[in-house]
Hints:
two-stranded antiparallel sheet
Amino acid sequence: MIAAIRLPGVLQRYLNGTVDALLSVESGGHGDFARPVREEALLPADSLSWRVLKNPIALFVGGTAAVILELAEPKVRAGVWEHSSFRKDPLNRLKRTGLAAMISVYGARSVAEPMIARVVRMHAAVQGTTAAGISYSANDPPLLTWVHATAAFGFAEAYNQYVRPLSTQNLDDFYREGAPVSRLYGAVDSPRSIAEMQVLFASTRARLAASPIIFEFLRIMRETAAFPGPLRWLQPMLLRAAVELIPGWLRETLGLSEYYGLRAYERRVVKWAGACADRIVLPTSPAVQSCLRLGLPMNYLYA
């Protein structure tokens, strides 16, 4: 078993601040995961989901890959691009999405369930027509299934490829754990295994299509400072790492050539960063604060 890394105080505070910044939205902070004391989350603390989503590298890379997959589906793409702040404020939109994922996994039930209900109500107002004249609604169950399934795929594969290898059983556990939470959002057919995820890819394949919007998203993410200065050099690598998670057949469909993927040395750097991040206890992170809420040791998810 690999032990947690103990860092000098100054470096520890710096990394805490970096992760806080990645989850803090303009409306203020990233929520209080330490309360109500002893209240359980929607997922148990011993779940694989708690261990995977504690890792900021897996969270950023997996979340970015999920957005690419969302934008490959024309109806989802229209909803995201026309009815959200992605074009004007992509970083805060990603932060809000990341914060919602954190609350869904780690937040106390009395916090998570009302938050999910608010998201469902907001989605009810998101309706429109794609450039091809096809109507869509954000609360359409098949679209919600695609969004939640691709998020699960992104987080699981990011952890699997850049942090620590996961077995087929691990991956199945991850999908199974998240499916009940996805249903609360209205994604009633979310995959419960890696095999079911592959079936969803196959059934959706014919609808997925290239779009300049995907390249615009990647450009915006390259130019938007998501990391503080000393760590900004890592951001382009993490974006390319996200592209690498997209299945090969879909990268070809979308026109994501090797140029957009990782170089060999970059893959080693991302894996090093992911492995280190999995061993550094961040006291102010949602994962650690939620462990403390339940009376668990600060290093519970790192032991």
